[in-house]
Amino acid sequence: MTGQTQLKSAQDAVKASEERFRRMCEKTPVPYLMLDENGCIQSVNPAWERLLGYMNADVIGTSFYDMLPPSDVERLRSYFSSINSPMQPPDLELNVRRKDGSVARVLFSSFQETDTRNKAHSTFCFLYDVTEKLKTQTDMIKAQQLEFTATLAGGIAHDFNNLLMSIMGNISLAQLFLNPEDKASKILEKAESTCNQGKELTHQFIILSKCGYPSKKPSSITKLLKESSVIGLAGPQVDVVLDLPDDIWKIEVDEHQMRYALSHLMTNAVEAMPGGGKVHVKIRNIVASSDHPLPAHPISSGHYLHLMIQDQGQGISSEHLPRIFDPYYTTKELGPKKGMGLGLTTVYSIIHKHEGFIFIESKVNQGTTVDIYLPALPGN
Q: Residues 31, 36, 40, CA angle at the centre, nearest 5°?
């Protein structure tokens, strides 16, 4: 074999190797990118595009650091500074901003290409999507919190209810010895009213407790909406817009619990608009399956009734939004008739016990949208 033939054979082998590497990068399901020594993106693969939404042309030459929150930027810089040390740093979990503005949680792993002086000039990075894993962990923690609250609520509800019954009984007896116009009688009326508020709190505890599982029967969501405070909330400042088709499927629910949940959500919507506005209430039948257009939210396959309540209120900040279902977490003022932090927890518990799903999206000064999916009874 001549030298020229050997050179041609070596060149062909290099090209074949480069082609195999290119195909491997394109076909691998793991998002991949290559960075230069300054953290600027040199190349990405199709899996990266699918995960984050950025096309190759969108990001080439841009800094990967710009896609991270400041706290993660510092962690990644520290990671790169020690990547060639004898003690290889562990993989990092980072939050990476997608093109649509949402955030992907990824496990970041990399290795560096160095020159003869051991100076890095390219870094090969792999991103393993752990967003769903994080969501599962968060949901598990939320379920554990709810379970703990339910156990505590059951005990409190029993003892508190006994105390209230004794207090209210003594108030009623005392009123028998007084003239209705007496000042003391008026004071006792206020005390009785306060006890009735306590009964409502006890009712929330019971719903949260294990004893508060729903007694279900086929019901009409339209009927429940009209029986809740939906219509009564409309007024000079608040306009309730109902979009309730006639062919809506029935749902199997505890009417008392569901009426409470609807009333609370509607009250929240109105309280978020102290200057007035519109509350849109919309219901639709949907089927979640591979054969039908999937809803915007992750739910199990099946037939559902989709209820949407949308207001034009003050909205909820991104800081508070992840915690709105936490027990006793509230952004409202505390005091008589103010927020006590159990309302949305109770609503979440009701929907969860009905094997449904609830999602809340909100932006400050742009309003809040509540989406509820309840298992439906098609054809009823």
A: 70
